[in-house]
Specification:
This protein is α+β, with helices and mostly antiparallel strands. The protein has three helices and four strands; from the N terminus they run H-E-H-E-H-E-E.
Length: 123
């Protein structure tokens, strides 16, 4: 086997091994600095349990539909309110197969039970 053919085979095997370990589902990474700053500014006067946080979702337009990416963000935010901040690609903590990242500010749902006038017991 010639050297170029041998190197091509080694390169193909390494590429296949690298891609075999990669999932094609959207996944969570840290949000961008801009999203983190927005979360910090918006949560300044909120209770600790209501503090927003920055999240990032990595995806690839070739493998993931926009609805799939949005569903992953909703899941990561545990049903809370999402505010989309920005989008970037490469050098952002994402993999080479899914280089795009959408950054969100996630406001957790208020899980504290509050009594309203209709819920209060009648004397």
């Amino acid at each position: 086997m010639s050297l170029p053919r041998h190197l091509g085979l080694v390169l193909a095997l390494c590429s296949a091994a690298a891609l075999a370990g990669c999932s094609m589902a959207p996944f969570r990474v840290d949000g961008s600095d801009a999203a983190a700053e927005a979360a910090k500014a918006q949560g300044r006067d909120l209770l600790p349990r209501l503090q927003p946080r920055a999240i990032g979702v990595c995806y690839s337009p070739a493998f993931n539909e926009p609805a799939e990416v949005e569903a992953e963000a909703v899941y990561l935010c545990e049903g809370g309110r999402l505010e989309r901040q920005d989008e970037d690609f490469f050098w952002n903590g994402c993999s080479l197969t899914q280089p795009n990242r959408i950054n969100y500010v996630c406001f957790p749902p208020d899980k504290a039970k509050r009594l309203s006038t209709s819920d209060s017991p009648k004397p």
